Every structure is written in C-alpha cells, then in structure tokens.
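We close this part of the discussion by returning to an individual protein. In the encoding step, the backbone of a single protein was reduced to a row of integers, each denoting a local shape. The sequence in question and its structure tokens are set out directly beneath this paragraph.
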Amino acid sequence: MISIKKNNKSLLVIGAGITGLSTGIHALLKGYNVEIFEKNDFPGGCCTGWFREGYYIDNCMHWLTGTNQHTKGFKLWKKLGAISETSNLYQGEYFYKSVYDNNEIALSTDTKKLRKEMLDLSSADAEETNRFVDAIEELVKANQINNFICTPFVVAKGYLKNYLYYHKLSLGELSKKFKHPLLQRLFTDYFPAEYSSLSLICAYATFASGNGKVYEKGSKEFANNIAKKFINLGGIIHYNSNVTNIEITNNSFKSITANNQKFEGDFLISTIDPMFLFNNLIDNSYMPKDLKNKFLDKKKNEIVSSFHTAYLINQDTPDITETSVIEIEPTLVGKHTITRLLIKDYSYLYKDKDKKVVQLFIVQNMEDIEYWQDLYTNNKEEYKIVKENTTTNLTSALLNKLPNLKDNLHLLDSWTPVTYNSYFNTYYGSYMGFVFKKKGSIKKLSSKIKNIKNMRYVTYWQTYMGGLPIAARLGEAVVKHL
C-alpha cells in the first residue's frame, strides 16, 4: 500500500506519452493533484500500436532497457506499473542478422559464438573483431550491476576500455575499418551510418546481457499499464483534449485551454514536442536559446524518422525470423535509393495464432522527411499515390529476394514520417530526437523556461537520444526539481 501525503498543489501535464505518464506518476507520489491532457484517444505517444484486420501492429518496442530484475531500470518500470517480476518478456536469439552474398552474421546473445563466426568469416579483420566483441563483453558484465544503465553517458564513466576509440567513430567509419563486405554492412544495417558507434555497442550489449528483452503483450499494452497505474494513484487523463493555448500572466503560467475549456493549475509541465509548444501554444520568444540553436544547426544536429510496411504471413515461414537485413534490388524510398532492407518479425506477439505480422523498416533522413512532408502539404492525393507506389515497390523487391513468400504475404498497412507528425505533432516525424553522432555531446538541456517560473518542458530533444528508458527517467527527473 502506497501512502501519499497530499500537498494540495495542482499540476497540469500536456501529453500522455511515456514522459508525461512518468511525470504524472512521480508527481502523484510527491503529493500533487495531477491532470494530463492528451490529444489522442490513447496513452503512450509513439509507444503504441494499432489493429488492422484483427491483427496488432506494434509501432515502438524493439528492445526494452531495464528487463533485468536487479537493475535500476527494472525498478523504475515496476514503479511505473509497466512491468513486474511476473511479466512475460521475450528474449530473441539475436539483436539482428545481416545477410549478404550467401553469408550471414547475427549479433547473438552468445558473444563467444559471434566472435568465432566473425573470425571464421574474415581472419583479416581479427583486430577489429576482437576489439568490438571485447567491448560488448565488457558492457554485458557491467549490465549486471544493479544501478547500471548502458548509455553513452554511463559508458563515459569508465566501463568501456576503448571508449575514446569508439566515441570518435561513426558507424559508417567503423564499418570501413573492416575488410569483408558482410562485416562492413553489419555495422550500418540497423542504425544509420551517421550514428555514433557507441549507439550500437550500448544497444547490443544491453540486449546480449538479458537487460533488453521485449514485453510480450506489445508497446500499446505496455503504455496502458503505466496509464492504469497513474489513474489508480488518483490521476486524471483527459483524452481527445488538444491543448490550443497556454495563458501566461506576469511571468507565471495561469491556465491552459483544451476543447474550448480553461483549466487552471499551480504548475504546468509540457512533455510534447518543443517545436509545437513554442510555435503554437506559447510565444517563440520563450524557447530556450540553447534548444533553438540545436534546431537551427541542422547539419550538426541531424534528425531521422522512418517508412514502414506491415504484412501478415504464416507463423511457420522459415525465411523471416527475428530481425534480419537482406540485400535487395535498388528501390527508391523518399528521395534515396536503398539496397539493404530490414525485416522485423513479431511472432512473439502471436504465439497462439497461425499467422504473424512482419514489418519492413526503412530509415528516412531529413531530405526524405521533407519530401514526404511537402507531398502531404501540397497534394494529399499525390502523397497517397507515392506512398502506395513505394509500398508496392518494396513488396516486389522483397518477393524478388524471397520468392517463397509469394502467396504468403498480405499487406496490412504502410506509414511514413508524416504519420508521426500527424498523430503526435513530432518535428520532422522524429521519435528519437537528434541523431547521437560521433563525439556527440552528452550534455542535457535544462527544463526551465526563462520568465515562466511555474512551467517546465521536458522531451527527448533536451538529451542526447530518445527511447523508452530516457522518457521514463525524464519524467522522474523533472518532478524532483518542482
């Protein structure tokens, strides 16, 4: 039984994403009366999914940092009601598998197996292979420490011997250190080449340690669990409540307007995209200078989103398991032509069914995103046609590579970066914030807004990367300083 001492202060929160829900729960536990205002009719923000033809399409979780019950991350998820010791969690055999020219390498949970397979494939790459696997094994051990959360920030504290070596390398540069063409592709198949090599190292080490499993009920139910905890603690969520104005009087937040109704509170925390906040709800002059400068410097602070297609296939289809990246014929997606295609298998969500959902996942850079946005803004019909043609071309490329899928591949849905912007008001359709690049700064930007003493904003744009654990910790941190 949780005992909460009320302080009779009211807190309004804009956005029922993971950050907003975490903010709300931590504020309730601190004694605040909390109301959350959410534009959609569901919680979780981008941590969600939807149904097509009776089948659930997951939009978010590829791995979840904090599934090891002895870690600080797990304790936070349990506190939020997301998972518990009895939750069903799925551990895949490998993080992802790269296939090229009849060879394949999988980033397995068994790092000894990975080392052997990489060395057997290319003895000429022994030095880089051993350095990489050594780094993974160092962080796998560190993941067993109770309070360890594998991020570039924590790695910088001394858990990784070769931190400086990898900190200076993008994944594209790391791939060029290898001679074998498959190993070169391995390091740029999952994350974009511009990402810091530490992004892959931290993510894979988390997965291999068993601290990066996935919730077997999917992202939507994961978010619903947190929303239920918030409500059970006494919080209120106003769904379908699009905030249209924030009233600021005498350097103080006074009220918000949602659905033509005013709501007053002692404090306001915005967890929605800051570009929407500072350009639509309050004057742009309030935007913190350091954040504004990051958005203006698009060359240094790149943004990515993605194009997806989802299909229904037979559960026992051998060609597609876990997450694989294959070579395909050149295919235009957005403004760029791709030859590598990531396929993610969601069979763990459909254990009792004879069908399963698989997704194609294609990263889109800023030029691609602007292309989709311009199409949608200027001619929605043309946007729809281009999206359908792109989906058809990707399907054809997949079938040409895996002809056994013919008559066993049924399209359920496809979506673009515009989809994320439309539903969640995310700038450039981004759900991860700025790309964490080599030599990237781990500095976090303040949540304070100058000249508004009782208002804060908190989003992944203020830190060095996005993701579910980051979102949860942001909500926890902002409440500490109220």
